[in-house]
Amino acid sequence: MRTTTPPTPTRERRRAASPVPPAPRSARTRSRLREADAQHRLSRIQVHNWGTFNGYHDLPVPRDGLILTGPSGSGKSSLLDALSAVLVPAKNRRFNAAAQDSGATDRARTILSYVRGAYRRTTDGATGEVVTDFLRAGATRSGVALTFSQGGEGAESLTLIVLFHVRAGTNAVDAVAQLLLMAEGSPDLTTLLPYLAHGIDRRAIRRDHPEGLRLFDKYEAFAAAFRRRLGLSSEVAQRLLHRTQAAKSLASLDTLLRDFMLDEPETLRLADAAVEQFGELREAHAAVVEAREQERALAPLSELSRTIIDAGAQQAHAEALAAAVPGYVHHLRLTRLEEERDRAAAAVSGLEAEVARAAAREDAAVADLDLLRAERHGAAGAGLPAATARLEAAQVEAARRADAVRALERCLSELDATAPADARAHHELQAVLAAEDSSLRGQLASLRAERDTAGLAALDLKRRVDALTTEREQILASRSAMPPRLLGARDLIATVIGQPASVLPFAGEILRVVDGEEDWRVAIEAVAGGFATHMLVPDRLYRDVLAAVDTLHLGARLHFDRLLPAAQAARGVPRVPGGALARKIEPIPGTEHADWLNVELMRRFDHLCVEGAEELAAVDRGVTRSGQVKSSRTAHLKDDRRDPADPRAWVIGVDARERLELVVDELAARAREKAGADARLDGLEAREAVLRDRLAACQRATEFTWEQIDVASAASQAERWARRCEQLRDAQPGLAQLDARIETARQVLSRARQTLRELSASLVREAENRDAATAELDRLREREQTLRAGALTPGDEEEALILSAPESGPMRVELDERFRSQRRRRPNLEEISEVAARVSKEIVEQREAAARSEARAVASAVVTMSTFVATWPETRGQVLPEIDYLDEFLAILARLQSDDLPRHERRFTALLRSQSRQNIGHLASEIRRAVSQVRARIGPVNDALATTEYSPGHHLRIKVEERRLPVVNDFLRDLATIASGSLELDDESPDRAEERYALLGRIMSRLSSSEPRDAAWRRQCLDTRLHVAFRAEERDVDGVVVDVYEGASGLSGGQRQKLVVFCLAAALRYQLTDPGNQLPGYALVVLDEAFDKTDADYTRAGLEVFRGFGFQLLLATPMKMLQTLEEHVGGAAMVTNTPEGDASALSMVLFDAPARRGAWAAPERPGDLFEGFDLEAL
């Protein structure tokens, strides 16, 4: 409805009583009038179905401003909120903010509550809940339109419209559909309502209004468009105007000036730009890091490649040496054979002469003896020689039998017996020897069985002692009580992947039995003992270990587990009861992998611990104290291959020192047992030796016949022939002397013959040596010629190696040294084969050692290449983790070292320099300049305050003081550290650059973080509005400070409102007035109960500030303030409501404009605004 009431008589009288004609207008005044006409002022408010304003309402707004008044709850704030729904972004919008002490929004008021027409809250009789009653429950259409107009001729108008629609049956806040429109002129809202019959028909609106009407889907575009048209400088100005509506809640000068007068500082944008550009630097650094990591990952290949090449060269050299040995031996043998042939030929030549001389001497001795024998034969006749021959034969036989008796006595001495004196005694001795032989054989058989048993026991003890000794050494070396084979396998893997063995723990090494649960040790070992021997592999080493295990021969059965992150491993872990075995084991405190182990224990060992078989039968998974394991309803296991109660068999939570003590104690005990077993075996072997000797003696004694040992009869026969010879010599004197000469001649002949025999034998040997050497030389040379001629037969290939012997050079020298080193001299002919075998074995061993070194290097290289490809999978298209690609990997390494890494480092250095200098340096400079910039921004506000008295003869001036927190100073120091390094980059070390980058990275990370703590830090450091504090000084005409206001402390409510209103008006003028203009382009300022705490003088002074700055006021106020406010506006609207509060209405009164004086001067005081209205009835 539109209501216009003629001016009151009081107003007429005041205007008629004015005797002063208008003064001539100055240029400044004319300029101000032109600016006043160009201002965009609110001229019309239209609402449909808004809150308790049912249906359509049209409220004209005078160009000089409007008062909204009426009882509490009548709907004044609803109309102001309608303006906010159009002019304020949803993120900044606060409905009914003036009613809240803190200025916060009324959460009960939303777009939905206004569209639905929420008007009261009642209690549901059925549920007792507090519910909201709505005026419009079905499908509802709603809208708000605000028309802004310029003054004077050719004035333009612009209408901002928001249309709403809510479907029937929904009261969700986000269920409100909305359309934003901007229309030229001042169209009626009612013309658009038909398009909301069944929702918002955007297509129809565009079709029917192709010109003069713009539609917007996003508020940001809508706001940007109307800000340009209405002269609003920024979204900050929008927020400030909205906050002005609740000016009475602005209690702090700092908050007002920081949040609503000052724009968002450039430092925030610079920081955002720095964070965005840091991504490029981060990428450059990542490229450097990746190149360094790649170079580091491939660096071992250089040494490994050299090792492979050297090992290959050593193998090739060894193979060449081995191939040269046969030829070398061949030539060495030829040389030795030639030497032997020449030596033997020389010896034969010398021996032949010596043999001839010896033969001549023998012939002379034979002749001499023959002459003497002939002489004696002639002198003695025929009887003496025959008797002498018989005597000599008898003496020989007697000596032979005496030797036999002595041999028999030696045998019998071992049997504690004596030689027989006669044939009968010999026969008895044979019977005794036969019995002794049988007895000794039986004793030997029994003793051998006992010895074999003792030998096996001693061997078993030796193996046990050796095993314990090895275990002791491994425990000392590894400080672990795990089985030796597993420790050896782990050490081998750790060596190949280049990590200490400690990073690959066995589960049992980092688990322990929970205190108080030792009674269940047997059950724990039975169930979890296998898992305890699992090697745990960190996720980062998984691929390295995988490749190493696949390449190596471990000599053990190894089970290893990959340590996934605990959160990932914990998926699907069942709940485990308190009596489960998993509750009796725990990770050792401080263990790195405790989280993963806890998850695995719960997953694997939910077996219930029960006392015996009866209880075990009643559970699905369990274990008894004795170690019987039930893993399902059907599967059972009890492993008694080792004693589960033996601490030596435990693998869970065993202290290495305790295990070492057990091992040392057992080793000592087994060593003592072994010493006893060895002593017993030695005794049995000694007894066996004695029995064997006795048996051998018995067997030898049995072999002697009586005729072989009858010395008495042989001695008697020799004595008889000796007497006969004596008789014959006595009968012929002179024979004794002749016999002596014959004996001498015989001895000479014997010596000559012995010499001849020896010389002849030597001659034969040397001749044989000569002939053999010659024959072997001929054979070898013939064979060499055959091989050189190429006439090979199958099987000759190896023999053909004799042709490959080096005749000179380093290899010949080396073979000479090798062959000489075996005997410390050159080997002779008989030693060549033995020495050659040793040299060949030594060469083979060296070749095998080189092959093992090459194999280890190849395995390590494959692991390195596999790790590289696994870490950087994109390289798979170029290379494969195979030894055949080693050169390609080395090429990648060379490229990294010569090109990629230096190039990435140069780019990183350049970016670090530019970002440090440009972004960080600029940001630091802006932060440091903030105080001076704020002072410059406050200057125009102070200029505005200087045009209006704050109190009679006094003006207000705002002072800016620096207030930097320590965190800001720390931040600036960090920025200085980063920026200062950019000037020294030519001499900057990589470590220094990394330090600056790390500091820059930490700062960028915090600047980009969404964590509340980092966000607060970012605001403290970058929002330079927080780096200053504001103080208002009240000064007299001479500029002397008469009062100082900091914040609002110590001020009454009215004083605080007055201070804030003055500064707010100045801030608005600063935000809304273009440089060089006197008036703002956008004039509307809405104040809701802004002067509820001030007296009339304070109120007039505050309003005069707004009028003096050229603002159009829309005031919502209680009726008690009407007389004070009426002279500052062009009209008033009374808002009323029914007693039930469900139907608001408007009554309008327009005042005559005081000849446009409101544009530059305060009007005369009018009379009673609502004179003629029944205010009591209202």
Q: How would you portray this structure in words?
A:
Keywords: Coiled coil, DNA damage, DNA repair, SOS response. Residues 711-790 form a coiled coil. One of its GO terms (biological process) is SOS response. This is ATPase. Residues 1-38 are annotated as: Disordered. This protein is an alpha+beta fold and 1178 residues long. The protein folds into 5 domains: 9-250 and 1084-1159, P-loop containing nucleotide triphosphate hydrolases (Rossmann fold, 3-Layer(aba) Sandwich); 266-297 and 906-1042, no CATH class; 329-399 and 731-804; 400-481 and 658-730; 482-654, no CATH class. It is built from 31 helices and 24 strands. A 6-stranded antiparallel sheet has the order 2-1-6-7-8-9. Strands 21-22-3-23-24 form a 5-stranded mixed sheet. Strands 14-15-16-17 form a 4-stranded mixed sheet. β1 (41-50) and β2 (53-60) form a beta hairpin. α8 runs parallel beside α29 (1053-1072). The longest helix is centred in the first third of the chain and has 81 residues, at 300-380. It starts with 8 loop residues before the first helix and ends in a 28-residue tail after the last strand.
How would you concisely characterize the structure shown here?
This protein has 1178 residues and is of the alpha+beta class. It contains 31 helices and 24 strands.
